[in-house]
Amino acid sequence: MRAVVTGAAGFLGSHLVEKLITGGFNVIGVDNFITGSKKNLAHLESRTEFEFLEHDVSNFISIAGNVDGVFHFASPASPVDYLELPIQTLKVGSLGTHNALGLAKSKDARFFLASTSEVYGDPQVHPQAETYWGHVNPIGPRGVYDEAKRFAEAMTMAYHRYHGIDTRIVRIFNTYGPRMRPGDGRVVSNFIVQAIEGSDLTIYGDGTQTRSFCYVDDLIEGIYRLYEHGGPEPVNIGNPNEFTVLELANLVLKQTGSNSKISFGELPVDDPKQRRPDISVASSRLGWKPTVELEEGLARTVEYFRNRLNE
Ligand code: NAD
Ligand code: UDP
Fold first, then answer.
1. If you average pLDDT over every residue of the chain, what do you get?
2. pLDDT one-digit tens code per residue, 257-291
3. Whole-number pLDDT of residue 192
4. Which residue's alpha carbon is at the smallest distance from atom 13 of ligand 2?
5. Structural domain of 195
6. Is 224 in the active site?
7. Backbone phi and psi for residue 251, each to the nearest 5 degrees, phi listed first
8. How far is it, in rounded angstroms, from Cα 309 to Cα 294?
9. Domain at 198, CATH number
């Protein structure tokens, strides 16, 4: 079995590559390092099951030989990144998805799209089930990511319906863990780095907004099951335990034993007020549920960042 993973040098892509290799795949990782890092793949360099291609997947993707699965994970994912890279984000979600689908079609391979809870926007339904169509501002700053992913889902379903491609769509909810970049800008990495360095934990807004944080190993297990046993309909994968951002800040302070203070800044435009996945579909169809709770996942992530910042 041979799989292509776009975005392989990113946080999630690098964990997925490992899982696929363990599952018996040979993997071709593709990345242009726009938000990823060579470090994330360094431990795989000597593995014969792994090849790497430096390439921007918004341009035609050429891979020699057979391919059984195409996993399209390339895209800036942190709000800080996609606000700095709006055009690249729109291109990789649209042109990149089209190219990755074209590759899957030409190889008669299964296609797997990394979509997001952001397709629900600032949701007016809580928790969010896959049947909810979302509440997205297409012309706001976050629209570049949300609409690219919504287009990517539509394109994936069109390839499924029109070309008969075997497809999967996962809607990923806030995931954290080792290999996030210290400067990635997402809340878990920001708070942990700030706590370790003794600077203020920067809460945007009053900290009452909520997120539901999933540990990376749980997410990757859900993705693998969806690829193997799922169908074409989108499936939420995330941890339904919901926390306010203020609760998260206090947990990080406790876990790190830090004396950092908390500071309150401006809430970004269109920042979703609440987010929690309804995971009934994942649990009934895939027998999946998360196993690592936030305290345990944070402990593992704090250890990773302590080592990374010491390097
Ligand atoms: P990341 O930024 O760590 O990884 C993304 C990778 O894609 C990077 O290595 C980057 O260099 C690469 N990339 C971006 N544009 C590219 C292009 N045009 N060509 C080739 N490579 C390109 O982010 P992540 O958290 O690992 O996210 C991976 C995927 O999962 C993304 O599609 C993201 O939208 C999705 N997702 C992640 C989360 C999360 O909580 N981590 C939540 C929802 C969705
Ligand atoms: N956030 C924060 N401080 C930070 C980074 C983020 O308060 O240093 C907030 C952000 O405004 C949002 C939540 O934390 O309400 C989650 O942000 P993140 O960037 O991790 O991902 P999002 O869920 O918004 O895509």
1. 98
2. 999 999 999 999 999 999 999 999 999 999 999 99
3. 98
4. 187
5. 179-211+241-275+292-310
6. no
7. -65, -40
8. 22
9. 3.90.25.10
